[in-house]
């Protein structure tokens, strides 16, 4: 079911493309109190002010066919050979060129009620996720240690989602890069022959990474307040490291480690922690 927005006392279905709320030329003309030809002519006369992918999307061929399949015929004519979809910035450009009270009043409504609807940004279409699913297939095929459930679990943990369709469209290239990083990591691990001492060191290293992540869960918010950019970069490393680290923890010791790091009293001194443990 499509999300709805109230524009000019009328409920309209919110449509989106590549997880971005968009509006057709016909809808824009109707809302702004003008005709389609006027919108098109304003665009033609000011093409240098519009950037494809930023102010609008132009759909043709297979891309248009797939979009039609996801959209009702009232929004897009089944006979259309091409279609222009305007983003929030594109709609703002047209309001500025028309410069009428109605155009500006309606754009404010679009800004408040249409383009800010976050729930429609949460899920991507299967075709948009194809590079990501292909990367996961490659990861499972090239590694001995992961099945599909394990592979997707790593991705879910890395991007803090329950399903890959919740990963934003513009983050999919990042997710693909992350999976290729995992492929290289696991492939190198498969080629190595570990001694008993090596395995102990790997287990210890993984344990330390998990402790670091738990420390970050406690203090990351404070660091993010001081420097959001740095915190965002550090978060990725800690999150990636801890997700991978659990794979190298002895299964018989995982529950004990989870219990040890849970609600750890970081701010207490060693003596205070020791006394608390003895009590």
Describe this structure in words.
By secondary structure, the protein is α+β, with helices and mostly antiparallel strands. The protein has 2 domains: 4-121, no CATH class; 130-278, no CATH class. Helices cover 59% and strands 9% of the residues. The chain contains 12 helices and 6 strands. It has helices at 25-32, 36-45, 61-70, 88-98, 101-114, 130-142, 148-159, 172-191, 196-226, 228-245, 254-261, 270-278, and strands at 4-7, 10-13, 15-17, 20-24, 56-60, 82-86. The strands form 2 sheets. The chain has a 4-stranded antiparallel beta sheet. Strands 1-2 form a two-stranded antiparallel ribbon. Helix 1 (25-32) packs across helix 2, helix 4 (88-98) runs antiparallel to helix 5 (101-114) and helix 9 packs antiparallel against helix 10 (228-245). It is elongated, with a radius of gyration of 26 Å. The N and C termini lie far apart (57 Å). The mean pLDDT is 80.
SSE arrangement:
Elements: E1 4-7, E2 10-13, E3 15-17, E4 20-24, H1 25-32, H2 36-45, E5 56-60, H3 61-70, E6 82-86, H4 88-98, H5 101-114, H6 130-142, H7 148-159, H8 172-191, H9 196-226, H10 228-245, H11 254-261, H12 270-278
Antiparallel strand pairs: 1-2, 3-4, 4-6, 5-6
Residue share in helix: 55-70%
Number of helices: 12
* Strands side by side in the biggest sheet: 3-4-6-5
* Low-pLDDT windows of residues: none
SS content category: alpha+beta
Shape verdict:
elongated
Quaternary structure type: single chain
**CA-atom Rg in angstroms:** 26 Å
| SSE topology string | EEEEHHEHEHHHHHHHHH
Main sheet: strands, sense, barrel: 4 strands, antiparallel
